[in-house]
Every structure is written in structure tokens, then in C-alpha cells.
């Protein structure tokens, strides 16, 4: 019932704003080395060997992803040692890989709380890599600073059924934006949590938001994200203050991610009402 109530709240918020009429376009699978040129900094955030989200470099040693990716279903934090980031993954090949030295999730994110506007606003985490990935290998993305309203955006993500290579949706829309959260008509699914939503500024893709979760609203695919600049600035400060203890290791009894399990048994993180 909490999920139902949260979804109705989000739906009511969306209903107060005009929605774009144009549906998002199809996905392009980035299976060849040349296909991922320029997208190398988007990668897979692994938790153990089976569970994953999508993440993106915003500095050689910083990966941006969703906060709910660093917790299990019971709200316990995963041990830092469980995380691995693989940049530019295609099948069994990746451009670069690094373990994680520290994790900071927004203090106002509540992992056991239902999907609602407040949690979406704070569903952001930063991973500090143990080994920075050189910019010449995977050039980090800057954050967008433009107003999100009525913008056309794109999403690069992994997802259930397409988890061996990146998928790029070249064009989808911002359906609603206010109070620190936004909604899109982009094609995302389990495993797309933490995927960067790109806006082009001066010809360059910059990260406008991250995918937090999604579902259906009046027969339309809806996904949700958040404003980033202030949230990310706070997480960077948290990492600087706390050093390698930004997130303490979770107890040894912590379980692996179990939100959304595909038929192959790979657990891909995603939140939906």
C-alpha cells in the first residue's frame, strides 16, 4: 500500500504539469568498439558478480549512481569491497575496471521507504574508485546546469535483457520537472538505475539527472530522476570529510541486491511502483 500511495502522489504531481506529446524513440545497442566512442565513461556498477546498476564517471575517480544501488532490500549498506566499476563494457570486454575505496549516499535517502518524490530527490550516491580511470581512457562527464523543463534528453544504460552492452536512447523527453525531481518518457528497466540522463549543452552531452525508478502512468512509460548539482556537491563534501570511511563496511550477513530478478538470475536494481 505504501508503494501504491507513493505512486499516486507522483502521478498527481505529474498530472498538475503539462506532459510532452512526443514519445521517446527506440534504443540503439552499442555493441561495437566504435559505437561507444564518447560514452566510455558510462559503465556497470557491479555488486558482487551478479547484481548491478548503471553508473557514470564525473571525475577520473568518481562514479555517480543511484543511492538505492548501495543498499539491500532490508536497508543494509553493502560492503565497499563488494563494488566494482567497469567502464565501456561490451560483452566480456571493458575499457577499464576498478574497485571502490569509498561510497557516499545522500543522508536524506531512506532505503526502506517507498518510492516517493522526497526519496527520488535524494536517490544519489558517489563511489570513489580505488584506481582512477584516466580521462584519456574514459572522459568524465560534467553536470548540466540548464533548466530541465520541456527539454529533449537521451539515456545511456544497461538493463535486463540488454545487460551485456550499453543501450542508447537518442531522444526522449522531460515530461515534468519541479521541486528537485523530474519525470521522463525514456526506455529504462531493471539495471538502468543510476543511468545518466544527458542534455546537450554547447554540443556536448552533460548529465542532467539519474534514473531512479519508473513504471506506467495512463499507459505510458514513465521514469523518474532528480536535480543533481546541489546533491552531488554535498556528496563530494561528504567524501572529502569522511575519507575512506564515507560508508562503513556492511555486516558480513548482508544480502546481495534482490530488487528485480531476471530469468537468468542476474539481479538488476530498479525501483518501480
Automatic annotation (TrEMBL):
Q: Which PROSITE patterns match?
A: TRYPSIN_DOM, TRYPSIN_HIS
Check the UniProt entry and state the signal peptide residues, or none: 1-23
Q: Which GO terms describe its biological process?
A: proteolysis
Enzyme Commission no: 3.4.21.-
**Keyword Ligase part of the UniProt annotation:** no
Recorded GO MF terms:
serine-type endopeptidase activity
Top-level EC class, please? hydrolase
Key words, A-Z:
Hydrolase, Protease, Serine protease, Signal
Domain Peptidase S1, which positions?
21-240
Q: Matching InterPro entries, A to Z?
A: Glutamyl_endopeptidase, Peptidase_S1_PA, Peptidase_S1_PA_chymotrypsin, Peptidase_S1B, Trypsin_dom, TRYPSIN_HIS
Q: Which Pfam families match?
A: Trypsin_2
The record's family statement is:
Belongs to the peptidase S1B family.
PANTHER family hit by this protein? SERINE PROTEASE (PTHR15462:SF8)
Q: Which protein is depicted?
A: Serine protease
**Organism (species):** Roseovarius nubinhibens (strain ATCC BAA-591 / DSM 15170 / ISM)
Source taxonomy: Bacteria, Pseudomonadati, Pseudomonadota, Alphaproteobacteria, Rhodobacterales
Amino acid at each position: 500500500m505504501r508503494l501504491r500511495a507513493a505512486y499516486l502522489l507522483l502521478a498527481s504531481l505529474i498530472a498538475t504539469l503539462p506532459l510532452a506529446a512526443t514519445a521517446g524513440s527506440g534504443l540503439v545497442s552499442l555493441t561495437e568498439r566504435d559505437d561507444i566512442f564518447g560514452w566510455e565513461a558510462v559503465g556497470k556498477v557491479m555488486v558482487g558478480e551478479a547484481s548491478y546498476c548503471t553508473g557514470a564517471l564525473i571525475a577520473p575517480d568518481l562514479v555517480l549512481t543511484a543511492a538505492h544501488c548501495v543498499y539491500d532490500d532490508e536497508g543494509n549498506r553493502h560492503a565497499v569491497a563488494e563494488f566494482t566499476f567497469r567502464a565501456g563494457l561490451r560483452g566480456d570486454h571493458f575499457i577499464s575496471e576498478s574497485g571502490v575505496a569509498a561510497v557516499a549516499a545522500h543522508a536524506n535517502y531512506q532505503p526502506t521507504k517507498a518510492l516517493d518524490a522526497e526519496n527520488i530527490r535524494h536517490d544519489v550516491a558517489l563511489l570513489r574508485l580505488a584506481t582512477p580511470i584516466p580521462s584519456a581512457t574514459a572522459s568524465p562527464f560534467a553536470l548540466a546546469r540548464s533548466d530541465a523543463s520541456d527539454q529533449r534528453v537521451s539515456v545511456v544504460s544497461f538493463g535486463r535483457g540488454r545487460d551485456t552492452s550499453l543501450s542508447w536512447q537518442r531522444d526522449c523527453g522531460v515530461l515534468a520537472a519541479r521541486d528537485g525531481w523530474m519525470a521522463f518518457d525514456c526506455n529504462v528497466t531493471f539495471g538502468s538505475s543510476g543511468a545518466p540522463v544527458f542534455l546537450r549543452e554547447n554540443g556536448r552531452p552533460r548529465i542532467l539527472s539519474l534514473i531512479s525508478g519508473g513504471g506506467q502512468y495512463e499507459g505510458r512509460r514513465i521514469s523518474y530522476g532528480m536535480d543533481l548539482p546541489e546533491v552531488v556537491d554535498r556528496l563530494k563534501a561528504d567524501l572529502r570529510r569522511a575519507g575512506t570511511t564515507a560508508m562503513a563496511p556492511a555486516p558480513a550477513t548482508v544480502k546481495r541486491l534482490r530488487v528485480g530478478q531476471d530469468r537468468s538470475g542476474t539481479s538488476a536494481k530498479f525501483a518501480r511502483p
